[in-house]
Automatic annotation (TrEMBL), chain A:
Protein name listed in UniProt: Solute carrier family 6 member 20
TrEMBL record, chain B:
The protein, known as: Uncharacterized protein
Organism: Ovis aries (Sheep)
């Protein structure tokens, strides 16, 4: 008797699992950045259009495939066509890369969370230098939040070539992060539920990309989640719900992020003004309180005319405070989460409380997404009869977590943050576009759209809306092809790839070129997942030919 | 009288007879002014800056100098203040007993550095509100506990997660064992039933407890024999 597949206890659990997977750190640190770069509110137009035209149809497709085939990504695509199991393998490979580097973010969030229980917050003050006459130079040149991130958390090296040793503090946090993930996935995936300038083409491309990656298409996680559904589950409704909630979270997060930007900009602008006022008051022995923000400009002019020599001495130290330049700092990624936000938090009242809440939220987002990522790897492994007959589910999960943790130690080295950026930028981007393209084409043209339609009708009882058919058959594949061509040409045209390295002497980021071995790793990352598709297809072709060409196998002794 | 210029880094170059204030020893006090009256505000204490406060200041500086070896005879009258301005900033110098020379800048600086805390406290001010030009204050280091706080919290969370994981693994192993024991238990009772059948003249014994549901034996006919699974 075949073992029955575990099921979600309620459809709501499935929806929550999908939402918790889709709503991740990208909603917090990527979407607000894109909004800011591409015209604020007007970015919502291409974003929503892409959501409706690309995001929802592809999300529905993945969920429907998972629910219909009732297997993880490898098995599901093997059922569609034996030559296509490479797509599933590619998904698993990409998910593996993602798991390896994504949990490092949770490790950093744990680090900051544990450091939030101090007064004052460690990133709000600079440490003193050796002879206690001033602050550490690197901290003076940069800011205390940047110093805490680059020196105390990452202990970053000046370039990617100088690897340095594994830092034990972030390594410990990484072990804890993996332990927490293991604890959550221990009982199997089914238990995870229990908890932008419109004319600018770049705006449209970035909207399409953001929707694509924000929903987590192509990793196999959605297929894995949906495979645990009852066949009669209405995944069309769930697809729409999940994508709408994901996008609303992004928009909400950008509202919060913009208010944080505003608070930080105002605070920095005012303290800059105060510094200038103090400098002038001290230099010219003015009465305290005489200089205010309002009369600063007039007084400066008066001083320049009345005491020209003295003013010219002091002039180089006077900074030009401007609210606009403070607001223009647009940051994304780890820089936003760990530098800009912490800078805003340190200036709030009861900053320890806000800090704890904020990093706890980051952890919830990160671990929620990690559960989906690990499900993408574990479901095909536990589905495979070969592996699950030898090892119980707990052991497989433990081994996967251990392997990822060991490889993740690479990111806790001194140059780890640079490798993290490489993985973040290149491990998933191009490969996912290709994987989802092949998925869409496979379902529509290899498996047959009408056959899939009748399957869905038999499963759920509803007929397939013409809208989905139009999107799956035509619009979405064309969109993905154009995105793919754009990114490929962008990579080729830009020539050599560059990265931002932290210069401790200057206290700021500088641009450097990637060395050849880093470029090789990038190429390997992209190729290893993409190559799975043709290689497995070729392998299946060869084994079939061999079997056909050898009708009487030699009897086994 | 010649102009008197004292280098900050070097020693005093006092050549003249009459000593006057030099521009190096300069301090200022940050305060919140109320009209023409100068108030010092610090820690809730308010007081006006008048000649008595100046006297206190001279006394503090003389006190600091008296702590320096060879300078125990410094008197309050040796400390000279001048150029007092509205925001309470002024210059001062310390002369030697003969009133002919001013003391070297370095000596006065180090003496004040040693007693900075007491000078601050005399005026209810701190390093930020009472500034001596070119006397850098030694910054107080933040208190460093012997064990960093983050390790303690990390340890607590780590132990909790580890214990929870162990519990889940153990309960999972127990479940496996119970599942494997379950079918074999079923077989035992069925064997017993076989024996009972031979003993109890042909009436089949069905393991009602195992299967659940109730079967009324009254309706069991000879043809209907419940086959054990």
């Amino acid at each position: 008797m075949e073992k029955t597949r575990p099921l979600w206890a309620t459809p709501l659990q499935f929806v929550f699992a999908c939402i918790s997977y889709a709503v991740g750190l990208g909603n917090v640190w990527r979407f607000p950045y894109l909004c800011q770069m591409y015209g604020g509110g007007s970015f919502l137009v291409p974003y929503i259009i892409m959501l409706v035209v690309e995001g929802m149809p592809l999300l529905y497709l993945e969920l429907a495939v998972g629910q219909r085939m009732r297997q993880g990504s490898i098995g599901a695509w093997r059922t569609v066509s034996p030559y296509l199991s490479g797509v599933g393998v590619a998904s698993v490979v990409v998910s593996f890369f993602l798991c390896t580097y994504y949990n490092v973010i949770n490790a950093w969030a744990f680090w900051y969370l544990f450091h939030s229980f101090q007064d004052p917050l460690p990133w709000s003050v600079c440490p003193l230098n050796g002879n206690r006459t001033g602050y550490v130079e690197e901290c003076e040149k940069a800011s205390s939040t940047q110093y805490f991130w680059y020196r105390k958390t990452l202990n970053i090296s000046p370039s990617i070539q100088e690897s340095g040793a594994v830092q034990w503090e972030p390594a410990l946090c990484l072990v804890l992060a993996w332990l927490v993930v293991y604890l959550c996935i221990l009982r199997g995936t089914e238990s995870t539920g229990k908890m932008e300038q419109l004319a600018n083409p770049k705006a449209w491309i970035n909207a399409a990309t953001q929707i694509f990656f924000s929903l987590g298409l192509g990793f196999g996680s959605l297929i894995a989640f949906a495979s645990y559904n009852e066949p009669s589950n209405n995944c069309q409704k769930h697809a729409i719900i999940v994508s709408i909630i994901n996008s609303s979270t992004s928009i909400f997060a950008s509202i919060v992020t913009f208010s944080i930007y505003g608070f930080k900009a105002t605070f920095n602008y005012e303290s800059c003004l105060n510094k200038v006022i103090l400098l002038l008051t001290n230099s010219f022995d003015l009465e305290d309180g005489f200089l205010t923000a309002n009369n600063l400009e007039q007084v400066k002019d008066y001083l320049a005319s009345a005491y020209p020599s003295k003013y010219s001495e002091v002039f180089p130290q006077i900074k030009n405070c401007s609210l606009e330049s403070e607001l223009e700092t647009a940051v994304q990624g780890t820089g936003l989460a760990f530098i800009v936000y912490t800078e805003a938090i340190k200036n709030m009242k009861v900053s320890q409380l806000w800090s704890v809440l904020y990093f706890f939220m980051l952890l919830l987002l990160g671990i929620g997404s990690m559960l989906g990522n690990t499900a993408a790897i574990l479901t095909p492994l536990t589905d495979s009869k070969v592996i699950s007959s030898y090892l119980p589910k707990e052991a497989i999960s433990g081994l996967v977590c251990l392997a990822n943790c060991a490889i993740g130690m690479l990111f806790t080295m001194k140059a780890g943050s640079y490798w993290f950026d490489i993985f973040n930028d290149y491990a998933a981007t191009l490969s996912l576009l290709l994987i989802v393209l092949v998925e869409t084409v496979a379902v529509c043209y290899l498996y047959g759209l009408s056959r899939f339609e009748s399957d869905l009708k038999a499963m759920t009882g509803h007929a397939l809306n013409w809208y989905w058919k139009a999107m799956w058959g035509g619009v979405s594949p064309l969109l993905i092809i154009s995105l793919f061509i754009f990114y490929l040409s962008d990579y080729i045209i830009t020539g050599t790839l560059q990265y931002q390295a932290w210069d401790a002497a200057q206290g700021q980021l500088v641009t450097k070129d990637y060395p050849p071995h880093a470029l090789a790793v990038i190429g390997l990352l992209v190729a290893s997942s993409i190559m799975c598709i043709p290689l497995v297809a070729l392998g299946t072709l060869i084994t079939r030919r061999l079997r056909r060409g050898d009708p009487d196998p030699a009897p086994v002794a | 009288m010649e102009a008197f210029l004292i280098e900050v880094d070097g020693a005093a170059i006092g050549r003249r007879r009459n000593t006057t204030c030099g521009p190096w020893g300069r301090m200022w006090i940050r305060h919140v002014p109320v009209e023409e009256v100068l108030y010092l505000v610090s820690g809730g204490q308010e007081y006006a800056w008048d000649t008595n406060e100046e006297y206190l200041f001279k006394a503090m500086v003389a006190f600091s100098m008296r702590k320096v070896p060879n300078r125990e005879t410094t008197e309050i009258s040796h400390v000279l203040l001048c150029n007092v301005t509205q925001r309470v900033s002024f210059w001062f110098v310390v002369t030697d007993p003969s009133r002919n020379h001013t003391l070297p800048a370095v000596e006065v600086q180090s003496a004040i550095r040693m007693n900075r805390n007491r000078i601050n406290n005399a005026f209810f001010l701190n390093d930020q509100t009472l500034e001596f030009l070119r006397i850098p204050s030694t910054l107080a280091p933040p208190t460093d506990p012997s064990v960093p706080i983050w390790i303690i919290i990390f340890g607590v969370i780590f132990c909790i997660v580890l214990v929870a994981t162990m519990l889940l693994i153990l309960s999972g192993i127990q479940q496996h064992r119970r599942k494997h024991k379950g079918p074999s238990e079923m077989e035992d009772t069925e064997d017993k039933c076989e024996n009972v059948i031979t003993i109890e003249n042909g009436i089949p014994c069905d393991p009602l407890d195992m299967k659940g549901g109730h079967i009324n034996d009254a309706f069991v006919t000879e043809d209907e024999r419940l086959t054990p699974l």
